[in-house]
From TrEMBL:
GO terms for cellular component: cytosol. Its cofactor is Mg(2+). The lineage of its organism: Bacteria, Bacillati, Bacillota, Bacilli, Bacillales. Its EC number is 2.5.1.15. Pathway: Cofactor biosynthesis; tetrahydrofolate biosynthesis; 7,8-dihydrofolate from 2-amino-4-hydroxy-6-hydroxymethyl-7,8-dihydropteridine diphosphate and 4-aminobenzoate: step 1/2. Residues 29-276 form the Pterin-binding domain. Catalyzes the condensation of para-aminobenzoate (pABA) with 6-hydroxymethyl-7,8-dihydropterin diphosphate (DHPt-PP) to form 7,8-dihydropteroate (H2Pte), the immediate precursor of folate derivatives. One of its GO terms (molecular function) is dihydropteroate synthase activity. This is Dihydropteroate synthase.
Length: 291
């Protein structure tokens, strides 16, 4: 790395699935495009809630530079209502199946905390589980991740933001999720972390955590950062949800500089360009990097 860090090393990972899909971590920042197959997500609810719309949007994101697509069938915005597993499956399974056909070389992530949704999505062609409850929302999720041998993203979350020491508590909670994964048989290389920006955290909490992401990177696992269009950016800039590209880019830059390797975003084209420039500073020129 061009930007030298003394408290952590960016882990390198290579994944190859039975269908020939490949993914590498550690050479540059990966862009995860957000695909919400929901009627009520906070910034794009209802825009991609048919299979045809979802496929068109996913194609567009890949053309703009997305390395993987994250498919969600339940909004996790504050105040949103839980969705029954049957409804979640109705929303996401046709999309997973269609994207597997339309984008055969692109890794697909299923954004769910329900084990049955994860299992059926993996059977339908998904490659990664993105669990906003860090395996703590459904006691069967860790076993599903272990059974399918897939990467699982463990996001930090709590029912209440009752922190004594914010960053220390976040790290401790994530270590608890890691322990659940390992106990179930999830391989070390398949564990990714997410600080859970915006989940059970105040405006001040989010800013503090954004400035101390190296403490998560120091745990030795790939870190995914999901800040795109979130409320703490809207609050800082006093702008509407569809006018936050620059604010999102600032958080992405801070994350990359602190070891985050995957960023989950709505505005793929702009953030891809921003991340590529930041990568040149952090990792060196693209042509000089070794896989």
């Amino acid at each position: 790395m061009y930007v030298r860090q003394t408290d952590y090393e960016v882990p390198r990972r290579k994944y190859e699935w039975a269908d020939g899909v490949r993914l590498e971590l550690g050479e540059r920042t990966l862009i995860m495009g957000i695909l919400n197959a929901t009627p009520d997500s906070f910034s794009d609810g209802g825009r991609f809630d048919t299979v045809e719309k979802a496929v068109l949007h996913a194609r567009r994101m890949v053309e703009e530079g997305a390395d993987l697509i994250d498919i969600g069938g339940e909004s996790t915005r504050p105040g949103s209502e839980a969705v029954a597993v049957e409804e979640e499956l109705r929303r996401v399974i046709p999309v997973v199946e269609a994207l597997r056909r339309a984008l055969p070389g692109v890794p697909l992530s299923i954004d769910t905390y329900k084990a049955e949704t994860a299992r059926q999505s993996l059977e339908a062609g998904a490659h990664i589980i993105n669990d906003v409850w860090g395996l703590k929302g459904d006691g069967r999720m860790a076993a599903v991740a272990a059974e399918y041998g897939c990467p699982v993203i463990l996001s930090h979350n709590r029912h209440a933001g009752d922190y004594i020491d914010l960053v220390g508590d976040v790290v401790a909670d994530l270590k608890g999720s890691i322990a659940l994964a390992k106990h179930a048989g999830v391989e070390e290389a398949n564990i990714w972390l997410d600080p859970g920006i915006g989940f059970a955290k105040t405006y001040e909490d989010n800013l503090q955590l954004m400035g101390r992401l190296t403490e998560l990177s120091a745990l030795g696992y790939p870190v995914l950062l999901g800040t795109s269009r979130k409320r703490f950016i809207r609050h800082t800039l006093n702008l509407p949800v569809d006018d936050l590209v620059e604010g999102t880019a600032a958080t992405v830059g801070a994350g990359i500089m602190q070891g985050c390797q995957i960023v989950r975003v709505h505005d793929v084209r702009a953030i891809k360009r921003f991340a590529s420039m930041t990568d040149a500073i952090v990792y060196g020129p693209a042509e000089s990097r070794k896989a």
